[in-house]
Amino acid sequence: MAQGLRVGVLGATGAVGTEILGILAQRSLPIADLRLLASPRSAGQTLTFAGTPLPVQAVSAETLQGLDLILASAGASVSRQWLPIAVQAGAIAIDNSSAYRMEANVPLVVPEVNPQDLKDHQGIIANPNCTTILMTVALWPLHQVRPIRRIIAATYQSASGAGAKAMQELKDQALDILKGNPPRTAAFPYPLAFNLFPHNSPLNDQGYCQEEMKMINETRKIFHTPDLRLSATCVRVPVLRAHSEALNVEFFEPFPLAEARNLLQQAAGVAFVEDWERNYFPMPLEATGKDPVFVGRLRQDLSEPNALELWLCGDQIRKGAALNAVQIAESLIAQGLI
Ligand code: NAP
């Protein structure tokens, strides 16, 4: 293991990038040098890391030299342009974008689920889609004991999933509406404040949006179950931060409720939250800024003996992106792969 890593954060000024900086400051990844990279628009800005001001530099072949590790969250086209150059220059890249996730030679990793896949990396490691990470952390402990046959997911996705500008847009729209003005839209196609709409990613000719297909394809890759049956409906809701998901999970046999609850109460990365008397279950507001995936409202599906219903909330900028990426780096160190 390197004694101290020379780490680059590409997309350092964005929603995920700033969260990565906060998480790096809190955890114990050994960092010898930290380089903040973004677009030329941000060059010259200063960001604070662990109390120290650091300059933001424009990403270029020069600013990618001499890194051991690069954590990228600047979008798929930026990753495609710059990560091969960073890897060629000697870095291992952990990418938050969708650019490389489904490539056969790129591990797609949730450290609580498939850390062993990291050993096959060839320079680039992909961080899964945020909604997929939250779902796989919650379902893996069950799937390991009694394999899952089919998942039906409905998601309730916050504005922050679309980045820092989308969060600000939701706040501005709420103010517009409360002042009696028409809400302005730019990051989203429709007003999100006091509204919701099916996920705004491109639709395929079968009627599924890209976010739904990511949940399907990425879960199969992470679980190593190419035949897993999964369907999803993804929806944007006027929540600032933290996604929620309602999951109907069918197994090949009945899954006793007490056993499932016990497994989830002990699962890595899961906080099991249920108070049936108070009707108190996970909420995005309470998941915001927190590390675990909050799971609760676990119950037998009344319509299918082999199925359970559950509800989860998780901070998708944190566990759904930044934290998962840093945990991948920690797992690389623990496995002696960097
Ligand atoms: P964001 O808030 O819009 O931030 C985008 C970042 O990328 C900014 O730092 C921006 O720098 C940088 N960037 C944009 N164009 C660039 C270019 N040509 N060259 C270099 N840097 C460039 O977006 P985000 O929400 O953080 O998302 C970033 C990535 O993470 C996306 O691929 C997204 O799909 C993925 N992701 C996001 C979430 C989430 O919950 N938000 C979850 C999982 C994965 P400037 O400030 O200089 O423009």
Secondary structure elements and pairings:
Blueprint: E1 5-10, H1 15-26, E2 31-38, E3 46-49, E4 52-58, E5 69-72, H2 76-88, E6 92-95, E7 124-126, H3 130-145, E8 148-157, H4 164-178, E9 197-198, H5 210-223, E10 229-236, E11 243-251, H6 257-266, E12 270-272, H7 284-287, E13 293-300, E14 307-314, H8 318-334
Parallel strand pairs: 1-2, 1-5, 2-4, 5-6, 6-7, 8-10, 12-13
Antiparallel strand pairs: 3-4, 8-11, 9-10, 11-14, 13-14
Helix pairs in contact: 1-8, 3-5, 3-8
The structure holds NADP nicotinamide-adenine-dinucleotide phosphate (NAP).
Description:
By secondary structure, this protein is an alpha/beta fold. It folds into 2 domains: 5-127 and 321-334, Rossmann fold; 132-316, 2-Layer Sandwich (Dihydrodipicolinate Reductase, domain 2). Helices cover 30% and strands 25% of the residues. A 7-stranded mixed beta sheet has the order 3-4-2-1-5-6-7, with helices on both faces. Helix 1 (15-26) packs across helix 8 (318-334), helix 3 runs parallel beside helix 5 (210-223) and helix 3 (130-145) packs across helix 8 (318-334). The longest helix has 17 residues, at 318-334. It is globular, with a radius of gyration of 20 Å. The termini are close together. The mean pLDDT is 97. The protein binds NADP nicotinamide-adenine-dinucleotide phosphate (NAP). NADP nicotinamide-adenine-dinucleotide phosphate is lined by residues 11-17, 38-39, 41-42, 59, 73-76, 78, 96-97, 130, 160-161, 163-165, 316-317, 320-321. Phosphate binds at residue 101. One of its GO terms (biological process) is 'de novo' L-methionine biosynthetic process.
